[in-house]
Specification:
Its cofactor is pyridoxal 5'-phosphate. The chain has two domains: 4-34 and 150-283, Rossmann fold, CATH 3.40.50; 41-134, 3-Layer(aba) Sandwich (Rossmann fold), CATH 3.40.50.1100. Helices cover 38% and strands 18% of the residues. The chain is built from eight helices and ten strands.
């Protein structure tokens, strides 16, 4: 028995069977929507807040601030409420209404600004003022360390060490960095595949950052290959996943799955794991499933 924080992690692997015909290639979705706040970001949010508290950087009187496209903010709002912390989240105005309402339900203050880059600048300015503590998921090693501690080991355990390819969307890049570090330590031959949007695409949770905003935690040597994903392909695969496999997840998951299928069609045998980042119900006010 324990509180809700103790339910973070140990999410299931689900085999995806209806999209390819080669029996020697297995594709699994790591179902991160099963985390209590609904996404893979629960792991990083917990590790960032808990580690900062353990180091004495924050306490009950600290005002936290963070820029987010959604999932990290929801996760931080849940963790902050459990620790009794004040939290302001800064999000692009284009974010779905479900995201804002969920953050507010947990007790966070939400500020909406024009773009993600503007949100990041705003949060960093407030953090620099000394009145707020910015967690800064884009530069915080505790982001990727969460996946060295939990996500990577779970995937290795649940595939019985048979994983050959790991596929993940790249936003803050924490998930792919941490999982790569852990999995490559177990078997350096595992291929790490990242997903980024094509130049014209807008895919929540996957970013093609301008150089000046590239996450500081990102190390390109930890990624063997990057696949560009179109908005149309990410949307189509998200819809196909829920209708053919019952996997209800967002557009970034659709993008990762599209990349996983591309890899599956290129190899003769292997075990591919992709991150199903979140739950699809936080996109219902958008046209993703329309």
């Amino acid at each position: 028995m324990g509180n809700i924080i103790q339910t973070i992690g140990n999410t299931p692997l689900v085999e995806i069977r209806s999209f390819h015909t080669n029996p020697k290639v297995k594709i699994y979705a790591k179902m991160e929507g099963n985390n209590p706040a609904g996404s893979v970001k629960d792991r990083a949010a917990l590790n960032m807040i808990r580690s900062a508290m353990e180091r004495g950087e924050i306490d009950k009187d600290t005002k936290l601030i963070e820029a987010t496209s959604g999932n990290t903010g929801i996760a931080l709002a849940m963790i902050a409420c459990m620790y009794g912390l004040s939290l302001e989240l800064v999000m692009p105005i284009t974010s779905t209404r479900e995201r804002t309402l969920t953050m507010e339900a947990y007790g966070a203050k939400v500020t909406l600004l024009e773009t993600m880059e503007i949100c990041r600048d705003y949060a960093e300015e407030k953090g620099a003022s000394g009145d707020y503590f910015i967690l800064n998921q884009f530069a915080n090693p505790d982001n990727y360390k969460a996946h060295i501690k939990s996500t990577g080991p779970e995937i290795w355990r649940d595939t019985e060490g048979q994983i050959t390819h790991f596929v993940s969307a790249m936003g803050t890049t924490g998930t792919i960095m941490g999982c790569s570090m852990y999995l490559k330590e177990q078997n350096p031959n595992i291929q790490i595949v990242g997903c980024q949007p094509t130049e014209e695409a807008s895919i929540p949770g996957i970013r093609r950052w301008p150089q000046e905003y590239l996450p500081k935690i990102f190390n390109p040597t930890h990624v063997d290959r990057v696949i560009d994903i179109s908005q149309q392909d990410a949307t189509a695969k998200a819809r196909a996943l829920v209708r053919q496999e019952g996997v209800f997840a967002g557009m970034s998951t659709g993008g990762a799955f599209h990349a996983a299928l591309q890899v599956a069609n290129e190899i003769e045998e292997g075990v591919i794991v992709f991150i199903a980042c979140d739950r699809g119900d936080r996109y219902l006010s958008s046209d993703l499933f329309g």
